[in-house]
Fold this sequence. Notes:
heterotrimer; A: 367 residues; mainly alpha; Ferritin; 11 helices; 3% strand; C: 523 residues; alpha/beta; 7-stranded mixed beta sheet; 6-stranded antiparallel beta sheet; 18 strands; 24% helix
Amino acid sequence: MTLKFAQQDYNIKSSQLINAADPCITDAIAVLTNEARLAESAETRLLNLKTALQRAVMLEFATIPIYLSALWSIKDNLHPVAKSIRNVVQEEMLHLALASNMLASIGGVPKIYDPSENGLSYPTHLPGGVHPELFLELSGLTDKTLDDFLEIELPQDGVEFGDYPSRTAEAHAENETIGGLYDAINTEFKSLMPKMSPDKQVSGPLSWFVVDNVQKIDSAIHWIKEQGEGSIGNGPQSTGLSKLSHFYRFWEIRKRKKIEQDPATGDFFFGREMAFPEVWPMAVVPPGGYQKENVSPEVWELLERFDHTYSSLIKLLESAWGDGGQAALWKAIEVMFDLEKFALPLMQLPIPGGEGNYGPCFRLIPV
Amino acid sequence: MIGGKYCCENIPKEMILSDGLELTPGNIEFLWKIFVQIGYCWKNVKYESSNLKSSWLEFVQAKTTVAPSYTGEYLNAIKCVLELINIYDETHAFYNLFLANGIGKEDPKATQLTRLAHAKKFVINEFIRMQVMASGFKHFGGENYAGYVKGSRYSLNPEVREFVELQQNTYNQK
Amino acid sequence: MSKVYDYIIVGSGVAGITIAKRLLEADPLTSILILEAGPEIPAKNRRFWWDYITLGKTPYDFTYDKPGQAPGNLGNINFISEGARVKAYGGSTMHWGAWALRFKPEDFQLYTNTGKGADWPISYDELEPYYNQAEEYLSVCGDDTENWAPRSKPYPMPAFQWTAADGVMIKAFRKLGIMPGKMPVARYRKCFTTGTCKYCPFGSRFSAQYVLDELRANKRYTNFEVRTSCVVTQVHTSGKNKVESIDVTDNRDKTQTEKYRLQAGRFIICSGAYETPKLLMKSKNEFWKNGIGNDHDHLGRYLISHSMLKVRGRFPTNKERWFQEYDFPTLMSRSYDTPADQDIGKVFLFKNRVLPNMDIAQLMIDGNTPEQIEAVLSGPMELELQAFMEEKGHFDNRLEIMDGEPDEFGLPLTKITFSRTPEEMVNTGIRLKQMEKVIEAMGYAIVYSKTEDPGGHHTTGTCRMGKTAADGVTDLHMKVFGTDNLYLCSNGVFPTGSAVNPTLTLTALSMRLADHLIANQKS
Lengths: 367, 174, 523
């Protein structure tokens, strides 16, 4: 063992900050995989890798609010459906954290808090030009929202059993997927072999491990793809029934039946009934969210306090990979639970005119 | 007791003052190497210590930026360990430091402690506590430990080793 | 002197803040001043948390009674106050374990059932709706299938499951006909099962601090104020019935103590079972020669604690390398907490919260090799069955003000006279024998079987409610007999202590008092 202290370089010039608004994922993948890149300088390739990882971070971030809205609309938070969706949310947070760790490992700084008009707001397409056929909107849990979730999580290589009538399967087949982006990232890590450091990464219950060598890039991407991001080998056959990937979890809820396995044949099928939970009828949040002049002061207070808490949370989370470190992650965990304080009462308030109930708007505001 | 002139020097037993002192990035990296050695010595780190680094950095920051600051103690510990490495080879330096330091129990009436005893008390012992609670306990079989941020009760994994009722076999044997 | 508050509340623990919260929710403009003798100690502070991890030291332990500040050796047994109560913003909820158990209906009728102790002027049924609300408010995680005490609503949160290390004791319980139960504990959904409940880094266990912080931050509560480091030294009445003002020594400015007098429409003393009676004892005047509410010499008397019973067992090996993974017990039983048990004293059984405790870090610090540590972890293991045993109030068991300089917060010193009767000592022996049977049924060898000296953690009785002034200090609404506007809300008002922790019951009483005050706003 030798004790040598490598000087780490964490400085990134602000001009190198990543623009995740670039719409074309196909190009992003090509940049990481085409032969021509090998002629580029290491700096350029590293920058491209960071750009791709920032894109992955935004993709992971974007689905969390829509799943949270569905989760909170369930009246009994211990209902099996609530548990299932909560598990999806936790895994999306893990993916966000792992993608952020990968980015931080090569000196990047994940950007998620952007209160400007370029920041994430709903309804939205998935960031980065992934699945342009899909539109994410904030709503309570309904069959329609489940249909949207199923399309978002649709496995890249088809559904492993049963008959799922995807309305976007064709578009899926033509377009590059999130899984494709991760594969390209993995390829480029292995080709470029960048210097990696754990120092600006975080670990904990939301972020299982740090990624400081290329083997751990494999693990991180394996977790992300198996649990969610629509790729090969995430059907019940490979995950087992206790760790169903997101598509199959949502499908169970949509079908009102649990996925089971025939012990004789090993085949999977929809078996026991799974009751659909009672939900608050949260209406689809209008573009830009509810406006102060159109709602009562009570509703506005809840909306505003939610947005404030949410924005503080996202800012804290971002700083966990910046100057805030682990302490910011712990604080973020605490703040995260405060969201419900405002979201749950909102969902119980009907919108005058009978269009359903209010719900949080997930607006990023200056805090 | 192990160590040379520096380690064996007696100084007041109160925490070493930190006024005007600051840890350099190099100091922090050296302290991290000491921390990592705990896992090597007790073979209790399941994956790599690097998974604990964000927590450890936060710990060091809390201990050095809020009064009473440990900066003076940390700098003293670095000097002690450097001296040990100079006298023994690296492996033996850490082996001796952790398992055969000869420091003995602190006499509550004593007004002085050696520099090495300072390093052990204020740095090594606290690092060990931090390491065990941050994940080192898992090697010994537990799921949870005081201080470990195990996670939400509402995730799929149980927080602790739970009592499992033996299922009564109610099937009729046909 | 010009301002007259609607309410002055003395003490910022769970009782005072729960009342304040309800009053403000009913009318956000209610003017309330909470006076707290102790300091404000930050919650969720990272350095404090790390010091707790590495040094085992909490940031509030300096506020505990120190040796000599509350001697308890005037009876036939030593009554221990050190470590029992936190004198700070948030009160003892800063350090409580948050075991949240309801009393049982018979606890309200101890005298009727046994001819000993006292009855409550209210029944379980009257308090039951408030137990539901208190459980919701404290976020109690409990088992809905239990039927220890009647309940009209399920627990707001699911119980913590038994740990693997509980298994051997669960089986022994069942063998002996003792029903094992899940310990109801107050933990919010955000509990990350970190095990440092005495100083939670996430604020996942109820603390009055968090409620106070929210009340202070609420912009609608413009007339709400909390002053820490402000000790109330005297209560003044104009005539017999009306409390007019209090004297405050304000120590907020460390360099200069300020003294002033404040007025309010209603006064609520919520400063725990020690300070509440002491403040009234001190407040002597021409109308109340022995102190306010003390015409019948009840103040400070009938002091009740819980007798802590312990039976420890040892097993030669620990093959599974069990160690306690939570900071609270998950296994308990109230099988000996029934009407039939009242005569000799009920017991509330629970498994020791820290055993089997393997302090792995200490073994490493002491220089043990990995192999030596393995041997310790798989070697002899100890488990312990503990119990709180109900005590009955005796006139001569009392706390009084002790002469001398006040403590560092300006609170008068305490002296305690506490004795156990020969009959009580026999009864604890009977209970210990029952507990030993559990340890034996586990196949463990008994290491010790003992009754601890009493302590101040769960003190009750010192300013108890009564049906009339002849048997209590306050009426059923916790208003001091003979006054129009002085209320007491602390564990001290409990006429009986039952066998379980008092905080849930105190919270329910606080809510009930707030509702009573709101309903009788004008009077």
